[in-house]
Design the sequence.
């Protein structure tokens, strides 16, 4: 109580220099000691396609000699859909990371740098029409799919939406699980997309370290056929299936090899095909 009183009575610190491309934090949620999400204001002129990413960050520490500060920027997938009035991001916490060691301490009212030039490959335009879309994620690689799961076009283009999310511990699945659960009661989305649109989603969370209802790496579960049996779908087929991949580098390369083994070809904005991988994101 005494400590709180001292903080309250302390003089206000000098106003920080306004950051370039500054946006204001509107909400922060912490899930584990490694994961958190936050929302911020969205520039009125900013347009993006669900699944794209932008560069965000904070000002670095002053140079000990010159006193000048440089921005610390990193690519972050936008977790909110293209129609949202705010921007949402999902992040890891790295205690000695140049950016995330600072970013994890942001609070409502703080400012972050946002370079409003979205890019990325995890967009519907990079895929040919299909029946079933697979979203493969590890860790915070769920972020672009949080956007696409709330994008009406996802349900217009596909009869089934399968989202696999592999994490080490159960708590790391919280963000994705809660988001998918919230779709059931989202009045706006049910009105815009169609009542019960969320029934098209098949959610397949797995853990690799902590005990959970489904243990194992998604790649191993696919090779054994267990994942397809659990989901009640046939093995991936280039005639019907499309895929998007976002995770750590080793995972991306492994899934890429598997998808090509099923006969899928990698697409791009300039040449749509059967699957795409987000190369800019490394969980």
Sequence:
């Amino acid at each position: 109580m005494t400590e709180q009183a001292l903080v309250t009575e302390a003089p206000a610190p000098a106003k920080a220099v306004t950051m370039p491309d500054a946006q204001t934090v509107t909400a922060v949620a912490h899930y584990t000691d490694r994961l958190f999400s936050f929302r911020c204001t969205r520039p009125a002129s900013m347009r993006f396609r669900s699944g794209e990413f932008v560069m965000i960050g904070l000002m670095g520490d002053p140079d000990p000699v010159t006193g000048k500060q440089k921005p610390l920027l990193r690519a972050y997938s936008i977790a909110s859909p293209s129609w949202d009035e705010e921007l949402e991001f999902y992040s890891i916490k790295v205690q000695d990371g140049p950016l995330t060691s600072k970013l994890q301490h942001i609070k409502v009212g703080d400012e972050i740098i946002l370079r409003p030039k979205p890019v990325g490959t995890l967009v519907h335009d990079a895929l040919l029409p299909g029946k079933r879309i697979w979203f493969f994620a590890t860790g915070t690689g769920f972020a672009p799919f949080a956007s696409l799961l709330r994008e009406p076009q996802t349900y217009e283009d596909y009869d089934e939406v399968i989202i696999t999310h592999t994490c080490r511990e159960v708590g790391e699945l919280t963000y994705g699980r809660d988001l998918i659960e919230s779709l059931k009661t989202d009045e706006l989305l049910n009105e815009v997309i169609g009542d019960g649109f969320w029934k098209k989603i098949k959610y397949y969370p797995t853990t690799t370290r902590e005990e959970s209802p489904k243990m194992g790496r998604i790649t191993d579960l696919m090779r054994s056929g267990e994942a397809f049996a659990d989901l009640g779908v046939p093995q991936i087929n280039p005639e019907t299936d499309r895929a998007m991949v976002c995770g750590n580098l080793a995972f991306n390369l492994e899934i890429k090899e598997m998808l090509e083994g099923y006969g899928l070809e990698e697409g791009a904005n300039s040449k749509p095909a059967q699957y795409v991988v987000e190369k800019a994101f490394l969980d």
Residues 1-17 have pLDDT under 50 and may be disordered.
